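Q: I have 683 residues here and want to know how they pack in 3D. Can you give me a structure?
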Amino acid sequence: MNVFYNKWYKNHALVYKILLFIVTTLFIVYLFPKTGKFRYSFEKGKPWQSENLYAPFNFAIKKSKAEIDSEKNEIKSRSLVYFELNREIKAEVFSDYLTRFNQVFKDSSNFSIENSDLYLKGKSIVNNLYDVGVLDSDYNYDEDRAVKLVTSNKVEKEIQYGRLFELSNLRQRVESDLGSSIPTADKKRIISIFFDVIKPNVKLNSSLTKKALEEELSRISLTRGRVEKDQLIISKGQVIEENQYDILSSLKSEYESQVWNSANYNWVLIAYTLLVALALLMLLLFLSRYRKEVFLNNTKVTFIFFNIALMILLSTLVINFNSQYIYVVPLCVLPLVLKAFFDARLGLFTHVLTVLLLGFVVPNSYEYMFLQIIAGMVTILTVSELYKRANLFISVGQITFIYIIAYFAFFVIHEGQLTGIKFQIFGMFILCGLATLFVQPLIYIYEKIFGLVSDVSLLELSDTNTKLLKELSNRAPGTFHHSLNVANLAEAAANEIGANAMLVRVGALYHDIGKMNNPTYFTENQSTGINPHDELSNRESAKVIIDHVLNGIEIAKKYNLPDRVIDFIRTHHGTSLVYYFYMKEKAANDNVDINDFAYPGPTPYSKETAILMMCDSVEAASKSLKEPTSTKINDFVENIINKQMESGQFLNADITFKEIQSLKKVLKFKLANIYHLRIEYPE
């Protein structure tokens, strides 16, 4: 059991990476379409770029959505409409008409035969209305639309909709049928009677009408014509017209739905999984070979994989909604974020892999990948200092401009002209650029979630008015002044060899904060001439000096300094000796244990931490120079850095001998300026 636990403990980081790799692969494959991908990209009105295409199998030509919608609208406009006819209402209306007529006219002073003729004329009008039918509402059908009147689901007759009477036309119809010979007073009375007694006896039978329409729609053919196997579909260079476009769309649909979904679904999943796993494996291999410190940090690996999955998720969501909006997704945020936390090379490598994976799901994949890779390169090349807001705005403008230029070139290649260019695509590129500006708050969010540090945070930490640096200035003013000098030297040195100057400067400002615990034990803070080391043994003095590294790490953690800054505190002395007290002890005791006078390490493992070690040692030792000259300074710098190299302090740092030589030149030049060396003028 203990053996298994020990193996697990030793390999838990590797096991975590394997699980992360598997989960990310499966998640990305889940987002991909579960069909085979048609190998050709095409657009209506553009030339066919691939070789001559022959039909791989027999398939039907599917009608376009516009054709099917047109046929449906045609059927809807002419399909039969069923109305329910209630014959009992006619008898009720005649009975009500007689009753109301007697009530209205029986007390009339001129009630006579003429009035009975009026009754008969009104009765004739009622009879005419109900012979065709009175509608309960206006249904807005065309007047020549065929309708069927049914009673108890039995068709009574078929007439045109325009013949059915609408109640809204009652006054006009009665006045017209009565004519002008009827006295005005009598006409008003009988019209009021009609308004009281006329009831609708025809209403729409929705169920029968809907059923009839569905039967008509079900008979629509979704295909028109057929393509036989080995038949030439389109030749290379031929412009894709509407007919060829429909045939190609039918082939693509048939290829993806029938062939892949039914026969090879599992094979498609396996193939997608292999390709996605291969891409992510390349990323892990890149990290393990060229970014070892990132690879060994599971949080950083998780952060990179999370950003890849997030970009693919956003892109697939947009494609599922409407693939025309794919360029709205700010994919250039990915290299920006990775460059802010790591470096440009890792950001570009990850961006290219992400774009390659998205090539499986986006339309016009070649055009999309070209645009995004070029935009990613521009992002890496233009954004030099992300913490400067003006730089970000300028870079976003350049990225948007590159998008527009590249799209314009592709359009001209496809169309051979400028007519018909889609200016709304330019608007999408502008929206994409505006969305890219969200990278600043996104970096802040990532810092809080993943505990990483960016150049923006480094800029805040470099402010000498921070609480910790103010405390250092008050408690150990000499150390604070030393740290400022080292920061200036280190920043200049980092700029010389292309290292992260901001990171080095911040590391230099905080590298000696551990001296705050015992400031007077360090010479730069001894202003009274009293040396407390006189009361300690050499071993005790060495321990106090060495402990400033461990104390600095504790203080840094207390103030929540980022790990990247703590690394400078941990490594700025490497495994070197507290040489002064070691030599004193050795002079008095030949059996001295060298480990008692050595810093615990580790040695620097990056260019930036190596630069700090050199600058710290050179700046501190330079205080001992008496009557400095150019020759003395040159020998002094060479001697210190060569000793560090001989003791193996830079073996784990990613720094070359050529870069070390460049750093020596910078340090010599800076020290010469500090001591204001001048040539000797003759008297």
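Q: Anything worth noting?
A: The first strand starts at residue 53 and ends at 54. Residues 72-217 form one domain.
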